[in-house]
Amino acid sequence: MWLCLHMVLKVTKILAFQSLSGIYSAREFVWWYNGHPDYSSLKPDLKTSDSAVILGQGNVALDVARILLRPTTELASTDIATHALSALKESSIRKVYLIGRRGPVQAALTAKELREVLGIKNLHIRIKQTDLSVTPADEEEMKTSRARKRIYELLSKAAAAAKTSEADPDQRELHFVFFRQPDQFLESDERKGHVSGVNLQKTILESVGTGKQIAVGTGEFEDLNCSMVLKAIGYKSVPVNGLPFDHKKGVVPNVKGRVVSHTSGDISQTEPGLYVCGWLKRGPVGIIATNLYCAEETVSNKLVDPENRTDVL
Ligand code: NAP
């Protein structure tokens, strides 16, 4: 009974605190430091405390963590927007927490991107040793995916190296926090309307069918203090006016880039002259190279379609 009441109160609080300042989507933050004209005036709160929380453990989460943690002397030689570089020079953020609802075997990272972050100068990596223990189901997942095994090995190696390194007061810290899912944002008592932390629910993994494990809340909660939250839990495309759209998958239904008028995938239902590529074609996954191959496939199909062919003499 207590648990039920507790849950109801928590849900009410989440809804009430949706609009706290200091909470940004990773997209807004990425657009800010990349100089997108609509977001150059974002002014993310980088000065209130030394801690930022990033929700999610995918490559976007890593990208934004890298911007917060990399020395600005190094960022200066990149094409980062000038306003972002100036703000980051003044930043007091020293600790970044990457929150994953599952474990190190399931982190949605790729090795190259993880290595880049682990290689940041003067960065202390923190991972709880207990989070690195693996279950038979984890072993099974790693057996079927070399990429997962590689990520797990990189994280384990980083944790072991951190244990033997000397503590340095100037060091910045990146905490990989596993088996925690966000439950509610907390409001600051001193600064009304501003976020002061995230309440996290501990999770365990449950197997669901072939090799997949999902996070399930345990009913135990803990608070993590911070003055900035970045939500990096993935993307979903929005429909484009006049185009068919598969709301469940968040894609324009297509067969190898040729837009089809409904979601059956029946090639005979192709919309003549309409093609799609990128996340609108496949969903919000894949590294840069994936997008290159994806575009190549769409363009090749466009070139061979009869309505687009011109005879060359
Ligand atoms: P992503 O890879 O789908 O990762 C999303 C993360 O958020 C996962 O850790 C996921 O956990 C978590 N998550 C999702 N829903 C959640 C919820 N309700 N509560 C708590 N956690 C939740 O998404 P992304 O990082 O936005 O990246 C999108 C795509 O772009 C990816 O394919 C990525 O590789 C790619 N990308 C590539 C590069 C590059 O090439 N350098 C850079 C950036 C992004 P679960 O696994 O448990 O769902």
TrEMBL record:
Catalytic activity: 2 reduced [adrenodoxin] + NADP(+) + H(+) = 2 oxidized [adrenodoxin] + NADPH
Location (main, coarse): mitochondrion
Cofactors demanded by this protein: FAD
Key word Transferase present: no
Gene3D superfamilies: FAD/NAD(P)-binding domain (3.50.50.60), NAD(P)-binding Rossmann-like Domain (3.40.50.720)
Protein name: NADPH:adrenodoxin oxidoreductase, mitochondrial
Family: Belongs to the ferredoxin--NADP reductase type 1 family.
Enzyme Commission number: 1.18.1.6
Subcellular location per the Swiss-Prot or TrEMBL entry: Mitochondrion
GO molecular function: oxidoreductase activity
Keyword Electron transport tagged: yes
Signal sequence residues: 1-16
GO CC terms, sorted: mitochondrion
Keywords from the named record: Electron transport, FAD, Flavoprotein, Mitochondrion, NADP, Oxidoreductase, Signal, Transit peptide, Transport
